[in-house]
Amino acid sequence: MSAAASALSAPASAARIAAANASVLPARVALLGTGTVGGAVLARLNAWHGTRLGERLSLVHVANSRRAAVDRAGLAPERAATALTASDRPSSLDDVAAALSWDGLAGDGARVVVDATASEAVAERHAQWLAQGIHVVTACKIGQGTSLARWRAIRDACARGGSGYGDSATVGAGLPLLRSLRELQAGGDRIHAIAGVLSGSLAWLFNHYDGMRPFSALVRQARDAGYTEPDPRDDLSGEDVRRKLLILARAAGVALDAGEVEVASLVPPELAILSKDGVDAALPALDVPLRERYAAAYKNGEKLRFIARLDCGGDGRHTARVGLESLPGDHPLAGGAGTDNKVAIWSDRYRVQPLVIQGPGAGAEVTAAGLLDDVLRLVG
Ligand SMILES: NC(=O)C1=CN([C@@H]2O[C@H](COP(=O)(O)OP(=O)(O)OC[C@H]3O[C@@H](n4cnc5c(N)ncnc54)[C@H](O)[C@@H]3O)[C@@H](O)[C@H]2O)C=CC1
Ligand SMILES: N[C@@H](CC=O)C(=O)O
């Protein structure tokens, strides 16, 4: 596969098989994670009940970190959460492929794992499922946004398994960012640079922070609204944005290593060392440093924005960094509201004025919609 053709759309053979089966067989779907995003996936599937979209998918396995509910004849999405609570079956990633299999059933249709977890153990399995011919659709960035070796394993597994990897929800919560990068390259463009706001929660925080309310109170609000990672330090440290920039860079043809991204964290050391349980009480450690950053920006008439930058370099020398920047109020990347991501892409055809993509970049509903769009694309 070329860099532009992605790991991430179904190779032609998988698409043909899916198309051939689509009219007769619903694709079998396993949903991993029933938290903020996974819960919204169930709600969206439920809203499709009795529609043509709903008929294309059959939910056969639902799991959280503790329990799993399996029904090879299909679980009703509105009853999946209750079935999970009532289930005494422990959650095991070893069971997922078997639950999706068509053994003993009439037909041989598409199989899809939807990853709505933030789990390293689940991400570690992506390549294995893909190599078995199971499509993987993920909101979790740990698959493609960490080591280059894992990113390559995912691409190779897609090729071996004739399967597809749906990653739209990993950057921009389903905004057409990765798709646009791939389409530009498919049309012959080289990507020159990417810059922008890639974190919905940090966008929301800096769109709302006015130096008056404690920053920590806003972090709690963003977490309760479902915008942050399960551990908000993953956002505040820049780690979530680093992963997104790695995913974008690799999709843009730059084999960027995680260590090549310069990351300026907002998390003070005393907060960084705590266990997850201790984080909430210690969030006020953010308040003084952020108030000082805000005051300095305000004095200059500027706005704070958490920006990711990639310069692809014409000579193979790329640079990448993420961190808080103080931007003039009328700077193009300073605009936007709510959780808006705003990303500028420079390429052969957009040399001077970049292509700019903007829209909500976090939140359960948009993310669930992005995931299920990918599922439908892959199953044909
Ligand atoms: N919240 C948002 O706006 C967005 C989130 N995402 C990504 O979506 C993913 C999920 O985020 P949230 O729903 O906010 O997290 P959450 O903490 O609310 O839910 C995570 C779920 O995963 C389950 N889980 C953990 N390990 C598991 C395992 N081994 N097997 C099965 N289930 C397991 C947990 O039990 C829980 O149900 C994260 O990777 C996040 O980065 C992506 C785009 C936007
Ligand atoms: N925590 C993430 C959620 C989406 O990826 C963010 O804030 O952008």
From TrEMBL:
It catalyses: L-homoserine + NAD(+) = L-aspartate 4-semialdehyde + NADH + H(+); L-homoserine + NADP(+) = L-aspartate 4-semialdehyde + NADPH + H(+). Residues 33-162 form the Aspartate/homoserine dehydrogenase NAD-binding domain. It comes from the Bacteria. Residues 176-376 form the Homoserine dehydrogenase catalytic domain. Pathway: Amino-acid biosynthesis; L-methionine biosynthesis via de novo pathway; L-homoserine from L-aspartate: step 3/3; Amino-acid biosynthesis; L-threonine biosynthesis; L-threonine from L-aspartate: step 3/5. Its EC number is 1.1.1.3. Keywords: Amino-acid biosynthesis, Methionine biosynthesis, NADP, Oxidoreductase, Threonine biosynthesis. This is Homoserine dehydrogenase.
